[in-house]
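User: My advisor, Dr. K., asked me to get a structural model of this assembly before our group meeting. I'm new to this, so sorry if the format is off. These are the inputs:
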Amino acid sequence: MPSDLGHALLGLLARRPSTGYELARRMQRPVGWFWTAGHSQVYPELARLEAAGLVRHDVVPGRGPRATKRYAPTAAGTAALRQWVTAELAPQPVRDLEVLRLWSVWLVDPEAASDLVHRVRDGHAQRLAAYEADLATLDGVAAAHDPSAPEFASRLTLEGGLRTRRAAVEWCDWMLAELARAAPG
Amino acid sequence: MPSDLGHALLGLLARRPSTGYELARRMQRPVGWFWTAGHSQVYPELARLEAAGLVRHDVVPGRGPRATKRYAPTAAGTAALRQWVTAELAPQPVRDLEVLRLWSVWLVDPEAASDLVHRVRDGHAQRLAAYEADLATLDGVAAAHDPSAPEFASRLTLEGGLRTRRAAVEWCDWMLAELARAAPG
DNA sequence: CAACTCATGTAATGAGTTACATGATTGA
DNA sequence: TCAATCATGTAACTCATTACATGAGTTG
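Assistant: The format is fine. Below is the predicted structure of the whole assembly, which you can bring to the meeting.
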């Protein structure tokens, strides 16, 4: 049974066969919106997936110093991915460094606190804009409304990012108001 | 300079001196809402913080087989924490296994997809309830409105969790409607 | 007397990041 | 000709999880 990263790669390959290099790029975006990996993770994981019979590759005459390998999922790979999607999922621990910092924000003066919240807000607003842009390109596509098309799933996840980032931006505005109320001037 | 975990522990100790065991428990909740660690991470990190002069301990005649050590931040420790709170913060990569699964949900039939979304919704709703309960206990406390009190920061972070979880639950409801619309039956 | 909580640590494993290493083709 | 992109891999290191190990006091 592959790792989470392995399933991320299978998810990418189920949408479109790719080289390791392409997978590493696609892991930055769009998959990077909710899962990231560098190429130094991708290549060994591809080898493990291949050893498990979940992906296979053919060699295309390449442009680098080594042979260029194009990977695609096997029937077993697609089946494993399909099964994993609906498998039991333990509640996920949250890991948010920004919130961890805000939790100790009572130690600093209100001006420094406001500055921090502004920077946090900017980050969320930037992500929000990126999600909106991605969703806009999907808007015209008919497949985005067909539950068996990958574009449908892309639309679901983008909509989720949109809503949580929108909530985060509103939260930051609320915090700024709280800080201003508590310490005016 | 301590790790993120080190700053999490300093944040706990700045609120209340504790033993390693208590810190490990407090890392489950409330800090566990946004950062987690087990006791096997806590003890070595406390030793590192002490070696760096950021915490110190006194020995209280203990109940375990070894001496019970109660830790508190030093002046340097509190200063380091205060500085870290407002320090430069690189944009954080998101890591969300639930969204990663939903991204491949186009591979499964609409009934299985709805079931998955229901389970995701339950998880968010449970967390939302926990946040609401924690916020309710803070509601009566006057310190929760004083920006220099730790309860103020607790209120900020809980409010953030509340808003993002609320958005997530609404997102799940939206997905269920989308799935029902696309595949009625 | 069994189970649970308090209390502290180490060891092994797995996952993730950063750095090292190479080299062809394409476009400015 | 210089830089970027395509393309693949390994090595060192850090961080996190799980398992091992011990033992007193309290509650049912």
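One thing worth pointing out at the meeting: The longest strand of chain A covers residues 55-60.

User: Perfect, thanks a lot.
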